C-alpha cells in the first residue's frame, strides 16, 4: 500500500471559526481569502450592528448570529 494514500491526515477537513463584531468589511475579506484556499468555515457574529453577519451571505460559509451577549456567554442561536 502507498503510505501517502493511507495516511490518516489525508482525510481531515480544516474548518476555521471567524468571530466578528461590527467589522463587515474585514470579515468579508477573511471569508474570501479562506474560500480561495479551499477552507470551510463558520462566522460567529456577536450582535453586530453593521451587517457583519449579512456581509458573508452568498459565500457559502455557515453563520451563527446572536444578540449582543455579556463577555463569556456562549452563542445561543442556531447555525444558519
Task: Explain this structure.
- This protein has 80 residues and is α/β, with parallel strands linked by helices.
- The chain has a domain at 14-66: Rossmann fold (3-Layer(aba) Sandwich).
- Helix content is 26%, strand content 22%.
- The chain has helices spanning 3-6, 24-36, 52-55, and strands spanning 15-20, 40-46, 62-66.
- Strands 1-2-3 form a 3-stranded parallel sheet, with helices on one face.
- It is elongated, with a radius of gyration of 16 Å.
- The chain starts with a helix and ends in a 14-residue tail after the last strand.
- The model has no long low-confidence stretch (mean pLDDT 80).
Q: What is this structure's SSE topology?
A:
Layout: H1 3-6, E1 15-20, H2 24-36, E2 40-46, H3 52-55, E3 62-66
Parallel strand pairs: 1-2, 2-3
Low-confidence stretches: none
N- to C-terminal separation?
42 Å
* Topology, number of strands: 3
Q: What is the chain-wise order of helices and strands? A: HEHEHE
Short overview:
With 80 residues, the protein is α/β, with parallel strands linked by helices. The chain is built from three helices and three strands, in the order H-E-H-E-H-E.
